[in-house]
Amino acid sequence: MAAASTTEDAEKLQFIEEITTNVDAVQERVLAEILARNADAEYLASNCGLAGTTDRTTFRAKVPMVTYEDLLPYIRRIADGDRSPVLTGSGHPISEFLVSSGTSGGEPKLSPTVNDDLDRRLLLQSLIMPVMKKNVSGLDEGSGLYFNFVKSETTTPGGLPLRTVLTSLFKSDHLKKLPYDPCHKYTSPTAAVLCEDTFQSTYAQMLCGLCHRHAVRRVGTVFAYGLLRAINFLQLNWRQLAADIEAGELTHRITDPSVREAVAGVLRPDPDLAQFIRMECSNSNGGDCWAGVITRIWPNTKYLDAIATGSMAQYIPTLNFYSGGLPIASTIYGSSECFFGINLRPMCDPSEVSYTIMPNMAYFEFLPLDGDGGDASQLVELAGVELGREYELVVTNYSGLCRYRVGDVLRVTGFHNAAPVFRFVRRGNVVLSVDVDKTDEADLQRAVERASSALLRPHGAAVLDYTSRVCTESIPGHYVVY
């Protein structure tokens, strides 16, 4: 099994090297595929006048750059039940809508997706562990304690599923059929992840993680804040967790039959583990019992796996407190519209995280931020970006979004072979401005950190979370931070 894993990892790493070497050729092929499969789509054929061409030059000349609002009439038609080829070709109908975290007019964005989008997302996901194993030794020997969750889903008026990216991923047949292996894959049973009751799901995942604490090599969730929520859950529920472990019986607060059945296969009476948890989570040892709690309870943990860039950077100091300074790996960059790339230097400092765009995911273009506005003629292809410059990401994906402004601002920090490496700077529309100034997330984060160090740290306190707004009710205007 180990030899097979090593061979597969080597093939994945070789794939990364090959696909990042021929970036422009891959991008040309991807665009041709997208245009060919969506040739009879109303948007491309009638609105843009492509008439079935797969030529890149014609595409760049005829297809406009758009925002979500520009495509909203088409999206609403599909959501309301129009089954004609509106955004995608007749052979690849929209299969579901993914709910974006962004908003438009107070409503969540709906990102159309087709069936084989899942294959592309899973392909990118499959590259992460080979990269991690290249940078961290011993990961094959243990498992991951990941706090993953699904959310309740609904349907559009036309009957298409409407759910988050992670809910779509975890409810896919591919992941549901993966064998449960707490010692070599993940400590959380699938039933616990799929439970829509957040308390029951978190309780079961935490309990199984505690039972397999010596097998855990990495602790993670999607975003950094999720790990803080998990620690807070442990702070609130460690007494009941210890009682369950001591008795070998699950609390009656867990009522989901599938979760109870899954945990029953893990839970055994273990008074020693129960006493250990009580010692570590109380003040029995003196001092602040929560400092370094992750490495004390899961002593073989090598890193935390969570996105800690952008607005999530504010949680890094608190994660360092709970983990004793473990490395934080931000491994993947994606959105509801598309998965974009991975971090090939995952053990770098969070402030230095950059992602290498994988050119097989979609067709990528970039709008220079130092240009004269939003003219599509200014768009630069993936192979043409320049080191040090900032761009807004524009994507053409397989699901009918063509030259779509994602809204992310990226800075080119280097190249891996011929593939550009980008650092996430900010969301394009998440900027505070009183007058002519532009204060982005990174600037605000640095200001909050300085204020926290000067005003709170001497009193043993820290900022756990914050938000902000612009106030122009007085002169001069200013920012208010809560």
TrEMBL record:
Belongs to the IAA-amido conjugating enzyme family. This is GH3 middle domain-containing protein. InterPro entries: GH3, GH3_M. Coiled coil: none annotated. The keyword Ligase applies. Keywords: Ligase. GO terms for cellular component: cytoplasm. Residues 355-427 form the GH3 middle domain.
